[in-house]
Specification:
The complex is a heterodimer.
Chain A: E1 4-7, H1 11-23, E2 27-32, H2 40-44, E3 47-50, H3 63-73, E4 77-79, H4 89-98, E5 101-102, H5 107-114, H6 116-125, E6 133-134, H7 141-151, E7 155-163, E8 166-171, H8 174-192, E9 197-201, E10 206-215, E11 221-233, E12 236-242, H9 249-265, E13 271-279, E14 285-291, H10 298-305, H11 309-317, E15 334-341, E16 343-344, E17 350-351, E18 354-355, E19 358-360, E20 365-367, E21 370-376, E22 383-384, E23 391-399, H12 402-414, E24 417-419, H13 425-433, H14 435-439, H15 446-450, H16 462-483, E25 500-505, E26 508-517, E27 520-525, E28 528-534, E29 542-547, E30 550-559, E31 562-567, E32 570-577, H17 579-587, E33 599-601, E34 606-611, E35 618-619, E36 624-630, E37 633-638, E38 643-648, E39 655-656, E40 661-665
Parallel strand pairs in A: 1-2, 1-4, 2-3, 4-5
Antiparallel strand pairs in A: 6-9, 7-8, 7-9, 10-11, 10-13, 11-12, 12-15, 13-14, 15-23, 16-17, 18-22, 19-24, 20-21, 21-23, 25-26, 25-32, 26-27, 27-28, 28-29, 29-30, 30-31, 31-32, 33-40, 34-36, 34-39, 35-38, 36-37, 38-40
Chain B: H1 2-16, H2 21-29, H3 35-42, E1 49-51, E2 74-81, E3 84-91, H4 102-118, E4 122-126, H5 137-153, E5 159-163, E6 166-168, H6 173-176, E7 180-184, E8 189-191, H7 195-202, H8 208-212, H9 214-221, E9 226-228, H10 231-242, H11 283-290, E10 296-299, E11 307-314, E12 317-324, H12 335-350, E13 355-361, H13 368-372, H14 375-388, E14 393-402, H15 403-408, E15 418-421, E16 426-428, H16 432-439, H17 447-461, H18 465-470, E17 475-476, H19 482-492
Classes of the chains: A alpha+beta, B alpha/beta.
Chain lengths: ~675, ~500
Amino acid sequence: MFDKILIANRGEVAVRIIRTARRLGIKTAIVYSEADRDSLAVDMADEGVFIGPAPAAQSYLVIDKIVAAAKETGAQAIHPGFGFLSERAEFADRLLAENIVFIGPNPHAIRAMGDKIESKKAAAAAGVSCVPGFIGEIEGVEHAIQISEEIGFPVMIKASAGGGGKGIRVAYNKKEVQEGFPAVRAEAKGAFGDDRIFIEKFVTAPRHIEIQVMGDKHGNVVHLFERECSIQRRNQKVIEEAPSPLLDEKTRAAMGEQACALARAVQYDSAGTVEFVASGADKSFYFLEMNTRLQVEHPVSEMITGLDLVEQMIRVAAGEKLAFKQKDLKIKGWAIESRIYAEDPYRNFLPSIGRLRTYRAPAEGKTGDIVLRNETGVREGDEISMFYDPMIAKLITHAPTRIAAIDAQARALDQFLIEGIQDNIPFLGAVMEEKDFRKGDFTTAYIKDKFPQGFDGVPPTKTQEKLLIACAAVARSFTAHRATQTSGRLNGPAVGAQRDWVVIVGGVHHATHVDLDDSGADVFIEGKKHRLDTLTRPGARIVEGAFEGAPFSVKIKSAPEGYTLRHRGVTLRAAVATPRGAELLKKIPEKAKADTSKLIVSPMPGLVISVDVKPGQEVKEGEGVAVVEAMKMQNIIRAERDGVIAKVHVAAGASVAADEVLIELG
Amino acid sequence: MKDIIAALEAKRAAARAGGGEKRHAAQHAKGKLTARERIDLLMDEGSFEELDMFVEHRSAEFGMEKTKIPGDGVVTGWGTINGRLVYVFSKDFTVFGGSLSLAHAAKIVKVQDMALKNGAPIVGIFDAGGARIQEGVDSLAGYADIFMRNILGSGVVPQISVIMGPCAGGDVYSPAMTDFIFMVKDTSYMYVTGPEVVRTVTNEIVTHEELGGARVHAAKSGVVDGAFENDFEALTQMRRLIDFLPGSNRDKPPTRPHYDDINREEPSLDRLIPDNPNKPYDMKELIEKVVDEGDFFEIGAEFGRNIITAFARLDGAPVGVVANQPMVLAGVLDIDASRKAARFVRFCDAFNIPIVTFVDVPGFLPGTRQELGGLIKHGAKLLFAYGEATVPKVTVITRKAYGGAYDVMSSKHLRGDVNYAWPSAEIAVMGAKGAVEIIFRADIGDPEKIAARTKEYSDRFANPFVAASRGYIDDVIMPRETRRRIIRALSTLKNKQLENPWKKHDNIPL
């Protein structure tokens, strides 16, 4: 076994590797760029080696610097994590030449799987099912029909040169091929001047399912079952789970065997992942590609198998044999992982980088039969930098059943507090509550299908609304009760605290009465009694306890008129008033919302780099009108409709707040 | 007796009816509450006792003798806010447009006198049309009587004005002399002369909102200390503000139990100061992480944003926080920031509220606009205010404390009681670059030499240790322990005794 390894990576995966290395008694060294000098990973590692400026191309991707760092620290092996150099065959080659062990597969395997076409050929040769299709000259409609029937409907007829949605037809039967083939050919000729066509199987209700494999240097290969990663946004995985709700034992075994066959074919000797697209309609599955590294979502496989994949990678790299056989591996329970990103779900998931003013993660560990794990590389006060992936953390829950794991995940998300930058927790919370997700009924188009207009929060259920109203009423009652202990009161503390509060949500008044006691309160909402047990006190940002016996966590923030409450995908603004106050509030008419359609506002705080229009100028929808720089990224601000510029409120060099008006249209 | 009681009830009902249902409805339609409704929101439920409900004007000019409405356009009295005594007067726009008669003024004067005598804050709610013109000079006399109480009460009891409708002409000067003014957006405006007069005199065309709306005064003129969305929010927040203030200068500010740990450490503060000295950070994060329960009430949040002034609590007791804000103009001191902070410091000093100062200041803002605007005297106000203040003063320098601005920001030399610095503090006459260009003027043509000199200067002075070696800094503390250290420092200052020499009053550079 190694005495010391070098981690050629950063952030959460570096922390992840250090944790395992520590447990195995292996010393760790880590490389770091300018931006990571004070990072958690560097703090945790036994040694750090500075390797240059923040951009990865000048630091984490420079092989010479990594090799030099290994020599300087005397590390015998390098773990590349994921991303960066993890799938660069020349890096593995170089380490081989330098006599440093690469904790990953051999260069031959990396090369074989690195090329899309080569890997498909290798897969086909190893008996892995590939998307059936015909590549070659198609003579005419009759030939196309014949090919389609061989492949099996539905099929996709696609122009070789196609792209951007042009030159693609899906045919569900012979007739549609008859019509579709000439149409696509004509379109292809017209649009691309190239009428070569290919036909392949169209996978209906596609789902992304991948098999985790693990091999050693002694020819042993096993698979650690599947992960499902269908919940994606723009090809970025957001929620992953293991096992997949789609698969039955037979399909699982078939996929696993094929994945192992491919791994064996390339003498695979580390942790790797064979990705498939599977049809939600008939469970047919087809090879996509193989990733020759540890995957971001590996923890869900660890949770259901009880294995530590990083440990296994280190052991096999050191030449050990896998200590288990396929028959020793069993799926235990269900694991769900959410990727918590620094992005604003309410603004089309715009990246939101900056300082983590507040970062409070739920406690890791085992509670009953629930295990909670949080993989992160940051602490409160750290910076989410523009230079790297904007992931803040991976939150993983494991439970005996899928629903229990989802519920645990939803609760853990409620306990995860991030402030200073925007996060996608409300969105993740909304998915955990969504019925098709809970049923396991989804495809890779899930997010687009369920949130076609983007995410704008979800309305509370009746129970959630009651809970949030109760939290607001109790929080307010508690501060009123505390006020009775203020010094200098006229009649002393005998003057009782207000116990009747009206909680106003979206213009609807909810009369409450709160009887506080030592362990929480009885809350009467419209006369109906509810029990809210909580020991949360003023100043806490999360109210925790049990509502009607069910545990809950609600994020709470004071607002001028009451509180803003967040729970799951719900954000609620609640005004809290005395009964008399509420009566008076009713007399104040809602202010007419200002017509903002004519306003062009800055989507983020930043610096105005340029204003590209003048009053009186006509602009078209989508035309750039100004450039605002935020965290060194230049964002082009565009007109959202046609119009004439009426007024320009800012000039280059001005710093603007989020939602600040930049330009008015006439 | 029954009849007598019934007659009293009838009289009370007539008084409470104010300007009548129609006018009340009009008031509501404008998004405003009535005078009494506002008091209901401000005071603890059922605590308000009205005074002078039956007062009527005595004017007989222009047929005024025929229209008398009990109360005469202002509701006055006392009640409690979270159990503590507060006096109030609330102008009733539905009665004679809330205009000020001699009788109306006398009612206000009466509660002002009571507040002063009994040592309790007074809140004035403004929504009125100005002087009662029919009363002529009597009305002016009435104004002056009120002004006089504002002046005598200044520094004795907290005086707060809330502008919730029109407030023009003579009406503006009473609020102007109170400690804090707040406004309601869209429904209130405040100016000496209105748009019509402006147009006649200067041909300038301007709206009420542009001339004296809440946003303008909160962000541009700095006349008001905060703007709220509606009457409900404004008055709810006034209750929150009153909770920080003592009844009078004879009292200590009120304390209450808190649910925060006085030893709470905040490791993230160790990484608050960016590596790059020119990169800003949000000083509000520091305030939020230091004070009890992360709760603070900002004064003048939209004006002179390069300095933050706020009330907060430490170990349950109110403090005034003054802090440079690196996010805005690098936290520089300019005219607006100096004026805003000076007034806040003097308020705290007048009312026995300890002052906690967080310093990250690169100096005073250069430029003709500042100099011709009188930066010298405005900056001196803050210097003066800090120097004369005798309340406990605890200061923490987080990063830059350059030049004269270092002296100004509650330095040891201005009788700062406990002055701490973070290890990242740079206490120097100026930044290294500027200093080197003066000291080593001869080397300016040689960038290498300049770089070496800059490093030398920066190694020598860009730290807190030179100042600490002189005793100008009492200790260099870890950022994470800032809360604990400030609380401990303040606890030693509970019985601080310090008096300025006797004088009739000082002559602060106004």
